[in-house]
Amino acid sequence: MSIAPLIGGRFVSAVTIELAGAGYTDIFFSIRDTEGILKLYTQANTTNVGVQRKANVTGLLDGGFLVSWNDVEAGLVRAQRFDAVGAKVGVEFVLSSINDSHAPMVVTLADGRIGFAREGSVLGSIWDPRSDPIEGSSGNDVLTSRLEGATVRGKGGNDRLIDGAKDGDDRYDGGAGSSDTVDYSRATAGIVVDLSAATDQARGSQIGIDQITGVESVTGGAASDQITGDANANILKGGRGQDTLDGRGNADVMKGGANDDTYIVDNAGDVVDEMGGSGRDTVKSSVSFNLADTVHAKGAIENLTLIGSGVINATGNNADNLLRGNSAANTLRAGDDADDLFGGDGNDIEFGDDGKDSLSGGEGNDRLTGGLGSYAFYFDAKTSKANVDHVTDFLPGADEIILHVGIFKKLKLGELKSKAFFAGKNADQAKDGKDRIIVDTKTGECFYDKDGKGGAKAKLFAILDTSPDNIGASDFLVVS
Question: Residue 379: which of 448, 457, 440 has the closest Cα?
Fold first, then answer.
């Protein structure tokens, strides 16, 4: 038996085992924790199954270990590298083309290289696992990079290429598989990954500058990462930081995890997954997106912003949503909770729901509908003929009109003063010098008069389609 210590007080042992009734021996290893509890027991050799003897195990500086042994049938000394949890790193390789009756003598040098010698010989060899390519097989491999810059090739199958989170410039090649992953989950500092870049696809203070080819999926680390896909159908996972995930074409799956994450959606088939996540998350979409669509929006996603210039729509869910339009004509629909809707520059249509929602049309001639409950209708864009909003269902005493003091500069903060308000049929101008907000109760038109009965003409800023004749100053609130 050969024993070597591992990081954290664990240890690994390697032994030669004769399988009952098989008539041959193989090499097995086991990993135990600090209390001696068995965590893993498995076979080390795979290339030849037969007479394998003289097991040896050596700990490596990256936390993994190397198992070596005599392959008696082939007349070779073989070795297999494993990571800290016992997963294979690369494939078996030949340490020596000569073996004898003694166990291999393998040591880890101070710089991370491996020294090999045979008893009774003055000759030996030094192996450098830091720079030799780590290569997978035709199957689904899990491969881990080394202490410094490494080349990791997955070859066939759907492989997982794990970055060691050391400041080395690595090369990752997923190979022929259709769902290969580069895994940066060991990184504790933020990374930037762009699979669509021609070169230097990943960089960060902890990982260096990595080259990535043949990879469809990326897993981020514990910090705030920025991960961008390519034209393939990507799977992007953020981790524990405030991540930004951008699938970049095709139908992608994006999973942010913990904290406040941002998702860039550009395909109707994109999936945003916040199942098990936390924080207040934001989708920025250039296509219509529905936060209540559980196929494409999973978990608690709170914010949705429409980007680009397309005529697209946004729909909320049962969380407290913040929905924002783009420069085109959008339809924004609130969900079941208390939501905030902000139109952009286009002629937007906005719908509240059962909660106490707030609706702001922004620029353009917008149409605002509250629905059941109490609603706040915001007016915070410059008044003009091209910016007159219709409020379809305003109910005095329940709903409220919010005026921004930056636009309505002659008003004082707080509830509108009764002396600054005038309402009546066919009213379109101030009755005296103190009137600032005028409502025509016949047409529902709302005007702002900055100088009362002065020379400036009152400006139309809203039309209340219900034409309420019982509207009063208390239905208006001035905010900053």
Answer: 448
Percent of the chain with pLDDT over 70: 95
Cα–chain-centroid distance for residue 413? 41
State which residues form the domain around 118.
Answer: 2-128
pLDDT of 120: 64
Q: Is the pLDDT of residue 214 over 60?
A: yes
Helices (H) and strands (E) in the chain, counts: 0, 47
Q: What are the two backbone dihedrals, phi and then psi, of residue 419, each rounded to the nearest 5 degrees?
A: -75, -15
Cα distances from 335 to residues 332, 354, 359, 459, in angstroms, run 10, 8, 13, 33
Residue 32 belongs to some domain of the structure: yes
Cα 60 off chain centre by:
33
For residue 346, is it within any domain? no
> Is 14 within the bounds of a domain?
yes
**Reported confidence tier of residue 122, pLDDT bands at 50, 70, 90:** low
- Residue pair 423/401 in contact (Cβ under 8 Å)? The answer is no
The count of domains in the chain is 1
What is the SS3 assignment for 410?
Answer: coil
For the stretch 306-340, pLDDT in tens is 999 999 999 999 999 999 999 999 999 999 889 99
- Quick one: tokens of 8? 């954290």
Which residues lie below 8 Å from residue 95, measured CB to CB, with a gap of 6+?
68, 76, 77, 78, 79, 104, 106, 116, 125, 127
Contacts of 146 (CB under 8 A, 6+ apart): 62, 112, 129, 130, 134, 164, 166, 168
How far apart are the two ends of the chain, measured CA to CA in Å? 77
329 within a domain of the structure (yes/no): no
CATH number assigned to the domain comprising residue 118: 2.120.10.10
Q: What is the mean pLDDT of residues 218-231?
A: 97
pLDDT higher than 80, residue 205:
yes
Report phi then psi at 475, rounded to 5.
Answer: -85, 0
How many whole angstroms separate alpha carbon 355 and alpha carbon 165? 47
Containing 143, the helix (H) or strand (E) segment is strand 142-144
Alpha helical stretches, state H, 8-65:
none
The pLDDT, as a whole number, for residue 129 is 63
For 384, the token pair is 């003009």
